[in-house]
Every structure is written in structure tokens, then in C-alpha cells.
Amino acid sequence: MIIAVDGPAAAGKGTIARALARHFGFHFLDTGALYRMVGLATLRAGGEPITPETAIAAARSLEPSSFTDSDLRTETVGAAASIVAVIPEVRAALLEFQRSFARKPPGAVLDGRDIGTVVCPDAHAKLFITASPEVRARRRQKELGAADYDAVLADIKARDARDSQRATAPLVAAQDAVMLDTSGMDITAAVSAAIAAVEARRVP
Ligand code: DC
After folding, report:
1. CATH level 3 topology of 2-199
2. Which pLDDT value is given to residue 203?
3. Hey, which end of the chain has fewer CB within 10 Å, N or C?
4. Taking the model in full, what pTM does it have?
5. Is 178 helix (H, G, I), strand (E, B) or coil?
């Protein structure tokens, strides 16, 4: 069984996807981390501005060991990930890894932007997690510790625009996705709603 969890930055999809994987005993893949690894490697190899050549080379020679790099979660690397994610060759280089991960028995939960539309269009359950930009900015600000709210909000909006407007695999809900707006929910409520939505789709 494959569960696709998509949505914009800081909507809660990572937390929900991890909780689903734990609940069902499935494998979990944070596909944003793959793009973050490419973004980080590109920054380290070529600096800014990011060039497609450097990004494509980084995507094709990705080392799974960099999954644990402590710099992956920074806003700078998140923004770089969103920039390299626009490049079709970068997306193509990461596609097979994601698809073969999704086939792992007894099941897998993948979270990202295009899981339900491109990576696993045949996923058994698809969730699209949203929340207002303001709520997401507050959550991200809390996560980052200090950070100026207006700067975080501006970054979230810029990332939404870039992720949604790109030509290849843009951030968009699959037609058969269950929409979950977590703006007014705490983690427990959001996770319960997600589990219920997946249970409703589950083949007995
Ligand atoms: O989920 P995240 O914030 O870690 O993702 C970082 C960036 O990676 C995001 O802004 C866009 C890109 N991304 C993508 O294009 N497709 C995915 N499946 C996952 C992430």
C-alpha cells in the first residue's frame, strides 16, 4: 500500500506522514529531503547563483549518507531545494529512487509536492495537507526559534509561488486527493483526521 502526502511548506505534512507510517507500520520517505540534499550539494559545489549544470550533476551523484547532514533543515537550503526542484533533469534523476522506495513491502508513506500526481499516481490513498500562509509562517517561526515573522511569511509565499508555478510537476492536489486544512487543528487532531481518511480508502 502506498500513501501519498502532498502539500506546501510547513502545512504539517511531515508530521502527519511520519505518524501515518508509524500507525500502519509502513516505511517513510521525506522526498523534500532529497531536493534539500541536491540544494545543499549545489550550494557547496558552486555557490550562488545556482546554475542548472551544477544542480543536475549534484542530483545525479547524490550520496544517501548526506541524508543526515545537519544543514538540511535550514531556510537557506529549503529555498535552494525549491530552486533546484524547478529543473526537469533534477526531478528525473530523483524519480526512480522515490518509485522504488514506494514499492517496499508492506507499504510506504511518501511526503512531498508531486507524490500523488507524478511519483505515485496510483497510490492507494492521497492526502493534500494545507494551512493558511500565516498559520504556516507562525509554525515555521516557532520551529526556527528566533526568525522574524515577516521574513518567514515572505519566504513561505515565495516558496509556494515557485513550487506551484513551475512547469514540471508543480505543487497541485491530485484530483482524487483528500483535502485536509490543518489551520485550526493541533497535531493530534490533524493526525487523527489523516488516519481516518486513509482507513476509509484501505483495501480490507
Ligand atoms: O518539503 P520541504 O520543505 O523539505 O521541500 C523543500 C523543497 O523541495 C520544496 O520547496 C520543493 C521541493 N520539493 C519538490 O519539488 N518535490 C517534492 N516531492 C518534495 C520537495
Report:
1. Rossmann fold (3.40.50)
2. 62
3. C
4. 0.95
5. strand
Structural domain spans, the chain: 2-199
Omega before 64 within 30 of 0, i.e. cis: no
∠ Cα 123 127 131 (to 5°): 155
Q: Which of 122, 147, 111 is nearest to 9 (CA)?
A: 111
Q: Is the pLDDT of residue 65 over 90?
A: no
CB 116 within 8 A of CB 173: yes
Q: Which of 38, 40, 119, 163, when mutated, tests ligand 1's pocket best, judged by the most ligand atoms within 8 Å of its CB?
A: 163
Query: Could you give the CA distance from residue 4 to residue 177 in angstroms, rounded to a whole number?
Result: 9
Residue with cell 510537476: 169
- At 202 the pLDDT is 73
Q: How many CB atoms lie within 10 A of CB 189?
A: 11
pLDDT tens for 11-59 read: 999 999 999 999 999 999 999 999 999 999 999 998 788 999 999 999 9
Q: Report the residue among 16, 31, 34, 35 best suited for mutation to probe ligand 1: largest number of ligand atoms under 8 A from its CB.
A: 35
Quick: pLDDT tens for 73-110.
888 999 999 999 999 999 999 999 999 999 999 999 99
Place of cell 537550503: 77
What's the gap in Å between 204 CA and the centre of ligand 1? 32
Rounded to whole angstroms, how far apart are CA atoms 123 and 84? 25
- Surface-to-core class of residue 17, CB atoms within 10 Å of its CB (0-12 exposed, 13-18 middle, 19+ buried): buried
